[in-house]
Description:
alpha/beta, eight-stranded mixed beta sheet, three-stranded antiparallel beta sheet, 13 helices, 14% strand, globular, binds pyridoxal-5'-phosphate
Amino acid sequence: MIDYEPFxxxxxxxWRGSAIRKMGALAARIPDVISFAAGYPxxxxxxxxxxxxxxxxxxEGRDGAVLQYGPTRGLxxxxxxxxxxxxSRGIRAAEENLLVTTGSQQGLDLVSRVLLDPGDxxxxxxxxxxxxxxxxxxxxxxxxxxxQNDDGIDLDDLERVVAEQRAVGHRVRFIYVVPNFQNxxxxxxxxxxxxxLLRWATERSVxxxxxxxxxxxxxxxxxxxxETLPIKAHDEDGRVIxxxxxxxxxxxxxxxxxxxxxxxxxxKLEQAKQAADLxxxxxxxxxxxxxxxxxxxxxxxxxxxxxxQHKRVVMEGALRAELGGVVSWPEPRGGFFLWVALPEKxxxxxxxxxxxxxxxxxxxxxxxxxDESGSNMMRLSFSLxxxxxxxxxxxxLARVVREALAG
Length: 407
Ligand SMILES: Cc1ncc(COP(=O)(O)O)c(C=O)c1O
């Protein structure tokens, strides 16, 4: 067997598998495991009938374009529909500002290719979405963490971190944020915090990469649409690169997402995308467009919000009943996640083996921290498991925590 290590690029040599994917692989091998690990949407709320009808009509038509290569930027019809969605979020974008991507994950990869050189610094939140951290590291950049506070980013910490990095000659290219129902904390950044961050970025000549897959999934009575207004809505000089996706609100299997950015950057992103995959799937984009045109997407959003809110309530209720006073979490006002703090003396990393024995899994909090902290934190996704499995899974988890506390 050839030893491939010497053949690998420096970047590839440094790659480590994603903690979440490893969890998934482990879970797949254990019968009846209850997974709170994957942040997947619930297939029960995929618009099956509507998508079936749309796909059938598209394929029955025998229009070559439906299965043909298309423009790298994305189908024009879809770009038009995306402009309307962005307008509803307070963002003015021309077609020239848009690029359809194969999931937002590709968007993060393309942004990294276009903006980062090896050794550059990207500022990320403590904690931050692991997929973004991976994309930045793939580009051989160094993600450096800043603390969060109730408003969003701790600006004093941000100022300190950036000054420190610049003092040692590092270029700080951008700050990556998920203001709406962040993965993993579920936190909604306050509007004032968003404006302050934009002001800070303008003063310090740093770009902002704003990732917004969860903004539509606010919980009625808990958060309002107006509170999810993206930073991009206030962007007057093209400082914000905005990413969003249909993965959580339509179906992630379509892999349809998009970037809204200043035109010179979109041109570069398009060149990077050409080398990566030429274009996002034609059929996927057409299905997504038809779902938008027929109102399938917009009409289902209220039901999706209610569905996930109900699951959140069930998970919180189960945690309170089983582990009240032992664990704590900030109540998420939207999205897919509970960000749970264990008692300080427990480590979510060490608990995982016992959790696997009890056939329940989660993502260890430390996976989201670029400074290796957060060992007593865990991310529990309530989006995918059924209500009954959420309750059963929390009961299993509670057994693990209680046993660990007992000795
Ligand atoms: C914050 C965040 N960004 C991006 C993504 C990637 O989404 P997709 O590539 O499915 O659009 C996810 C998926 O979980 C996410 O949580």
